[in-house]
Amino acid sequence: MKVVFLGTSGSLPTPERSSSCVAVKIGKGVLLLDCGEGAQRQMVAAHIGFSRVKQIFITHLHGDHVLGVPGLLQSMTLQRREESLEIFGPRGLHAFLQGVSNTLGGPAFPVTVHEIGEPGVVLEGHSFNVEVCRGDHRLESWAYAIKEKPRPGRFHPERARALGVPEGTLWKRLQEGEDVGVSGSIVKSLDVADAPRRGRVIIYTGDTRPSEEIVRLASGADLLIHEATFADDMIERAKEDGHTTFSQAAGVAVQARVKHLILTHISSRYGDVSPLLEVAVKVFPYTIVASDFLEVEVPSA
What we know:
The protein is α/β, with parallel strands linked by helices. It is 28% helix and 27% strand.
């Protein structure tokens, strides 16, 4: 699993920071977390092909998080995409995309829009699930958890051979946790393979005030991607606008006991973020600030 930050600005893009968009590479596929204006250009610069995108997850219907979707759909159509695409987001997302399609013409491939109404699992994929909880913003907003399913433990071929298991499909079944019969005997998976490894978890908050619901969703996560729009001297402004300060986001990471924290959605008023990062690191040491095109590999357990 690799995370690529395509847009890390808050509300207004800057010469250094584009509008909100994060790509998560899982296998050969890509899912997008938010898709602000300029996302297509950022994808091209990051060498992420449009055809690799399987799902788009929109946190809320502010322009800097959703205005990139119509252009991306049109570009996919120009590239003669045929594969279906799923888009998840708050109520009103379907009407927004339908309105654009009525004016500009709709995509020439199947697009399914899932409007989220309740917390819980919204996607059950082959290797991962996506779960949501409510954010605390000025309008309906959702935070997303990408939860990788448990992965097979390390397989030990020498043990399998010693137990007379022929190489092939039986090895695969054993590695996937299944006990198999060989020459009238049962060979247990744990005889030849290590226990399954815990799947990795990535949390993406979108725009939000500090939230107990997000703390619960993020509990023990490998990576928390949390907005940090304002410095601490603007805490009242953050509360009013439905955002979080640097130290508040670090506090969420502490409460949730996550392994790593990456801060994004940085207000355009801040150039050098080093002093702001110093404040956050004092609260949660394993913190960095995202920049456009930052790539982060989420290591296996």
